[in-house]
Amino acid sequence: MQQTRRSFLTIMGAAAAAGLARPRLARAATSITVLNWQGYGTDEAWAVKAFTEKTGIQVVHDYFSSEPEMLTKLRTNPGVYDVVLINSARVSQAVADSLVVAADFSKVPNAAGLSPDLVNSANRNIDGTGYGVPWVWGMTALAAREGGTIPDSYAALGDPANVGRVALSDDAVTMVALVALLTGQDMNKPTDLAAITDKLKSFKPNIKLMWSSEDQWNKSFAAKEFDLSVYWSGSSARSKHISKLPVQFVVPKEGALVWMDTLNVVSGSANPDAALAFINYMIDPEFYVEWATKVGAPASANSTAMDKLPADDLTRLIHDPKYLKTSTIQAALTDEQREAFNNLWQEVKAFYAA
Amino acid sequence: MPLDPANSTQLREPGGSRKPLPPWASTAALLVPTYGWLTLAVFLPLCTMFAFSFLTATPMGKAPIVFTFKQYRAFIDQPYLLGVAWQSLLMGFWTTFFCAVLGFFAALALVRATEGKVRETLLILVLLPFWTNGLVRVFSWTMVLREGGFLDYAIHSVWPGAGSVGFLYTRQAVVVGLVHGYLPYMILTCYIALVTIDNTIVEAASSLGARWWTILWKILLPMAAPGLISGSVLIFVPVIGSFMEPRILGGRVGVTMGTVIEDQFTQAFNWPLGAALSFTMLAVVLGIFATFSGVLRRGTAL
């Protein structure tokens, strides 16, 4: 009895091992697994098909619905993923846990066209090593109604000329970073939160509403409820192009809040070369132009790809690479910072309401 | 007993009478599904949230979690929350007040002036808004109340020179949206209370010379008090915690305890603070009900 059970277990174990081993062996030749938000570029069916036809590499996708979930998936499934999308603000966290490997640009020919401002970002250069290939980026700054005065500073949010005509983003991190720029502070490490609170409170007579979604923004702007707003670059292109709203995206002299997403090769990937080949394809101008013009996409980190867009393309016009010189890329926040920013924003909102 | 085959066969014999279950057993059997479900769906999550409210951070992820009372100090550390809480209570009061006035008279009209098919149709019309999504109803109010909205349009078509009366993004707009959303509760509870009033009492009063306002104040209102009070409780509690209506209709002034708590859960990812604020508000509401419990008991005992 004992003997039988043991041999039964052995057989089961062997079968399980074989079952586990088989997919890895099979995909060793030609398959990579990509971890990303669903519907965010890498899983476009036409793109995956074109990539497979070109290289013979199969692409499998898995998705996450929050950044903590992405990190958890990488931690608990070593060896399963080959490519992962990480917001550059989270790269240091992934590197600290050795979840991703350094970016090897020698195997990514298209990296030659990457914007140096993005490549040199402190977010991805950790202890002298570059991690993650910059993929796409976008900005948060101002949006003004066409035909009115175009502001050159965030101070316009508190300008008496705009009484009752301003909308803010109902997001603590955005608003604190933006006013940190206005008060001359490092937006990623503001030290004088009291100055930011006072500046935000001084906007009170101008504030009409605080928006929390692109849809809400479009409806209110179309109803002419405000003329000046904190807004996202990609959304402003959609509001103008799809909703036909008379909106102009403005990056004032203090610069914009820039976010950047990077594609990384995962530690323990069985096919780092195939992973890099896929990343190379993702920043290829050919793929990007089709993605941006047929589906709609944020700005590519590859300036060569941006130059291939039609001259009148809104995404291209709005995401002028010169803004990267004057702007800062949003970095990771500690839990203490996040809590302090949120409490600050709640206090400001209560002040607006009082 | 089931182990004994002789006994079990005996039970199945024709004519053998089965022992009736004790009364507590059938009561328990009928109550268990409901209370089991309530325990699972309401009580346990509430207990979890209560436990969360004593932690330093949301217990998801790697950050170390420590027991603390600091979340309950929020009203001391962030004194502006007192103003927010006061505004939320005022909002709850005004919404309940307008619902009570409008709801009582609507129910009175339904009971005293309609019958049969007409009454059924009107009752269904009262419930009709419940069949549409709350978000849609609130957004449609923004189209009515905004400057140049339907309200302005209607007024300008009668009086072209009039200025704008749009009052979107004010506290009044929030109360309008909330009254619209919660009025059906009040109409229904008042209707149920009023419909049970024996018509002969009203006839007796008027035959003895009582005027309509005497009948209203001395007979209808006291007898409908249970409906008014249960409707008010049904409305006051959720209104204090409402966040969608203030956020969409309130604009800049739409900051309530509901929106503050919602932000803690959805934006700040600070569940402990959100939970602590919720339980503090729960304590305040219970305190209010305890203060007025005498009135409530007298009202509902009728």
Automatic annotation (TrEMBL), chain B:
Lineage: Bacteria, Pseudomonadati, Pseudomonadota, Alphaproteobacteria, Hyphomicrobiales
Ranges for region Disordered: 1-20
Membrane-crossing residue ranges in chain numbering: 28-52, 89-110, 122-144, 173-194, 215-240, 273-296
GO cellular component: plasma membrane
Protein name from the UniProt record: ABC transporter permease
InterPro entries hit by this protein: MetI-like, MetI-like_sf
Compartment(s) where it occurs, according to its Swiss-Prot or TrEMBL record: Cell membrane
Family recorded in the similarity comment: Belongs to the binding-protein-dependent transport system permease family. CysTW subfamily.
Lineage top rank: taxon: Bacteria
Main location group: membrane
Single GO BP term: transmembrane transport
Source species: Mesorhizobium neociceri
Listed Pfam families: BPD_transp_1
Keywords: Cell membrane, Membrane, Transmembrane, Transmembrane helix, Transport
Membrane topology: Multi-pass membrane protein
Domain ABC transmembrane type-1: 85-292
Compositional bias annotation for Polar residues: 1-11
